[in-house]
Write a structure and sequence with these properties.
By secondary structure, this protein is an alpha+beta fold. It has 15 helices and 5 strands. The protein has a 5-stranded mixed sheet, sandwiched between helices. Helix 14 links the parallel strand 4 and strand 5. Helix 5 packs parallel to helix 7.
Length: 420
């Protein structure tokens, strides 16, 4: 009858007490270690190309510019009509009273355009309306303003080229749907304005006029097709930029991640801790862990089982280090850097990790070699050098390891004095 080796007992007993999520991560880490490959963790999740807050600011800024452009177009049309009034009056070519002319060709169109602009302003600055809906409203509103300008001046077929502006401006948003909607609306509105509305009684729809309108519609279709091509090209460029950013993130993660345990490595720790001086929130704390009697695990059960302990502990830290980042400092030494949390929150989290460690590795084999976990916690103070924070956490860890070990110690000046 075959007897079970201490190695198999260690592996089975420690896995029994482990949460399911941790078991899955450990198995995946083990497979990646056996095959010499690195497992991508949650820290490598694909990051969106556009930061949500930055995207919203950029969209609002462009929609504001869109509204300004609409206002400039409306203002120019009004000034043009006023200038034409004075020119026609000076040459005695007006067939209506000045009051009627001002109302029909200046006040009415300006009022419609002003209503569209105010609608845009209200919609753009509403926080509960989706960005895409705002873009559609702004685009269609500009189309209506172009319709007003074209209708009032419909006597001149070339004025219908104004419908090109709403279409072109949609390309900046990079939305096929928006460009399709605005382009369709512009073609319909131009057709209605040219053939169904006689704002100026002197407008005559003859063959030349009809041909001119069809040419203008053809130009709009060409501009619409060109806009779609521009959007497609911009999307390809953004996709390439996103791919490059993802590849840079993957390379950086490979540089800063420990392949065996799955947490960040010492290089990643040194890179992160050097930035503490620029952290606005100074509530930062460093925890140093040391697996007590880890050498006995290697001597008793072999280095492969020692590696499994490191894999399991790395998985434990990844799962339970709330508001912190876990690192493997070297050998059996690990640490967690907490940012933006009070000291008592960090202490409570370390105690939780300490308790779970005891549950996961509290079997008979681990008690036989006396494996346990010691921890030292130190807080960052403004103006403190990174080396000082590390020394203070080391001093607290040194106190935890004296005597019976298996303790959690919070650094104070007394620990610093005693550790020297």
């Amino acid at each position: 009858m075959m007897s079970k080796s201490p190695n198999s007992l260690l592996c089975r007993s420690s896995m029994i007490n482990m949460p399911m999520a941790m078991k899955k991560e450990i198995k995946a880490r083990s497979r990646s270690a056996k095959h010499g490959t690195r497992l991508m963790g949650e820290g490598n999740a694909l990051r969106p190309y556009e930061n949500e807050e930055g995207f919203l600011k950029a969209a609002r800024r462009w929609m504001s510019l869109h509204i300004v452009t609409q206002g400039i177009l409306s203002g120019l049309a009004m000034l043009l009509e006023i200038a034409m009034f004075f020119i026609m009056t000076a040459n005695s070519k007006t067939s209506t009273s000045p009051e009627f002319y001002i109302i029909k060709y200046v006040a009415a169109p300006a009022g419609c355009n002003l209503l569209m602009i105010l609608t845009n302003v209200v919609v753009v600055y509403q926080t509960n309306i989706p960005v895409r809906v705002k873009e559609i409203v702004v685009g269609l509103s500009f189309s209506v303003s172009a319709f007003v300008v074209a209708t009032v001046h419909g006597l001149f077929p070339s004025i219908f080229s104004v419908f090109v502006l709403p279409i072109v401006l949609t390309t900046v948003y990079g939305s096929y749907m928006l460009t399709n909607i605005v382009s369709g609306a512009c073609i319909v509105l131009e057709t209605v304005s040219a053939f169904c509305i006689f704002w100026d009684n002197s407008k005559v729809i003859d063959t030349d006029y009809t041909m001119d309108i069809f040419v203008q519609i053809g130009v709009q279709i060409c501009v619409y097709a060109a806009s779609l091509m521009i959007i497609m090209q911009e999307r390809h460029k953004q996709a390439a930029a996103l791919k490059g950013e993802q590849e840079r993130d993957m390379l950086q993660d490979a540089l800063f991640r420990d392949d065996l345990s799955g947490v960040r490595n010492k290089l990643g720790f040194l890179n992160d801790i050097r930035r503490l001086g620029s952290v606005i929130d100074k509530k930062c704390h460093l925890v140093m862990f040391d697996i007590d009697n880890f050498k006995k695990v290697n001597d008793t059960y072999g280095h492969l089982k020692g590696d499994e302990v490191l894999i399991q502990f790395g998985a434990l830290l990844n799962e339970h280090c709330e508001n912190g980042t876990a690192y493997r400092f070297g050998g059996d030494e690990f640490c967690i850097l907490y940012k933006g949390v009070p000291l008592y929150t960090a202490v409570d989290n370390v105690k939780l990790i300490h308790r779970i460690f005891g549950e996961v590795f509290g079997d008979e084999d681990m008690r036989r070699v006396g494996m346990s976990l010691s921890a030292g916690i130190a807080s960052y103070l403004p103006g403190m050098l990174p080396e000082q924070l590390t020394d203070n956490a080391d001093a607290a860890l040194y106190k935890s390891k004296r005597g019976e070990k298996n303790k959690v110690t919070v650094y104070s000046r007394d620990e610093r004095i005693k550790s020297r």
